[in-house]
Design a protein that fits this description.
Blueprint lengths: L1 H40 L12 E6 L6 H7 L2 H4 L4 E6 L3 H8 L5 E5 H8 L5 E10 L3 E5 L13 E4 L4 H12 L8 E4 L5 H7 L4 E5 L2 H7 L3 E5 L8 E7 H6 L1 H20 L1 H12 L11 E3 L2 H7 L9 H15 L8 H4 L3 H9 L2
Helix pairs in contact: 2-10, 5-13, 7-8, 10-11, 10-15, 12-15
Length: about 350
């Protein structure tokens, strides 16, 4: 009888051990489920440790500075995407690196996009960063007080790019033809020095170079306020990146718009952060003369239209200009050049 009691006791102990082990496993399972739910309900997304960073080039232009805020404030990480910003003071260097396949994306003006698409057909614009609304300028020597004084003068501009189109549109609006002036090919960064030397009497450039020209004795004759919507800038990616990494691009853009909103609502803090990161003077960092293209503005611009409020219309304007001036031998398909789906998807997520 004692042996049966002992056997029963062993069976009870074993059963309790099994039950305890089962309860432990069940507890661990429920805890894991709770953690998963918590992670999915959070607005922050942890980037995958093995994720290859998106390399995106940008240059010294206020509309591109949300890149700095998104990186410094941790917005990219918050949205779950690794980004490697590649900065250059020179406008053309990031574009050249992108064309050579050294980066995944680049910020550039629409005219510059048209300038490289002939050699890089598999690239597409996914969003607008900004529109020039006064930052682009025609700066002139002191004695020039009106458009009529530009007759017979040398005007500096980047030929075959948005600078040339900007100058020609201005001159046409003031009843001057191409026979009335001479266009001299140069980068916007070199305009202040060329003006000061007397090599040119007027030139197209943008801030901070326009401000530099004014500080050395020139003055502003016209700005892009006279040509609304003519000089849009955006972010372009290789088509393979758009195809293979759509979730990362969506997260990148979400963080970008988050950074824009931060700068617009915290202008002083945003300017100080940008100035420190790029080693600029805080006074030189401003959105004055630049219209940041927020998500709602992007949604409107990335809709077909018949004015420069539509990126499709403006892109066609540039395409026609480049065909006419020999910058392109074949007109690009504007509908394929622009990818509105990311902006549309983000807009649908808005409350």
């Amino acid at each position: 009888m004692s042996s049966l009691v002992a056997l029963r006791f062993i069976q009870v102990i074993s059963l309790r051990q099994v039950q305890a082990h089962f309860l432990k496993l069940l507890s661990l399972f429920l805890l894991s489920m709770l953690l998963c739910v918590a992670c999915h309900s959070s607005t922050s997304v942890t980037p995958q440790s093995n994720q290859t960073p998106l390399k995106v080039g940008y240059s010294l232009w206020p509309g591109y500075f949300p890149m700095v805020i998104a990186q410094e404030k941790g917005f990219f990480a918050e949205q779950g995407v690794k980004v490697e910003p590649v900065y250059s003071e020179n406008y053309l260097e990031p574009i050249s690196n992108f064309s050579a396949g050294q980066t995944d994306g680049v910020t550039l003006a629409m005219g510059s996009l048209m300038g490289i698409i002939g050699q890089n057909p598999d690239i597409q614009m996914v969003m607008l960063t900004d529109q020039s609304a006064g930052s682009d300028a025609l700066v002139v020597q002191p004695e020039i007080t009106g458009a009529k004084d530009l007759k017979g003068k040398r005007i500096g501009a980047k030929l075959g790019d948005f600078g040339e189109l900007f100058v020609r549109q201005l001159m046409e609006a003031h009843n001057l033809t191409s026979d009335d002036f001479t266009l001299v090919n140069m980068e916007g960064e070199s305009v202040p020095a060329r003006l000061q030397s007397g090599d040119i009497q007027a030139g197209h450039t943008w801030d901070p170079y326009a401000t530099q020209a004014v500080r050395t004795g020139a003055h502003t004759l016209f700005t892009s306020k006279e040509t609304p919507g003519l000089i849009p800038s955006g972010i372009v990616f290789h088509s393979s990146v758009i195809r293979d990494r759509p979730q990362e691009l969506k997260a990148f853009m979400k963080a970008w718009f988050q950074a824009q909103d931060y700068w617009l609502t915290h202008p002083q803090e945003g300017a100080a952060l940008i100035a420190q990161a790029l080693k600029l003077k805080t006074a030189d960092v401003s959105t004055a003369g630049v219209q940041l293209m927020t998500l709602p503005k992007n949604l409107k611009a990335l809709t077909p239209g018949t004015t420069t409020e539509s990126l499709y219309y403006t892109a066609q304007l540039y395409a026609d200009f480049f065909i006419r001036t020999g910058g392109l031998s074949t007109a690009p398909e504007v509908e394929k050049l622009i990818v509105p789906s990311f902006v549309q998807a983000l807009s649908q997520e808005q409350p």
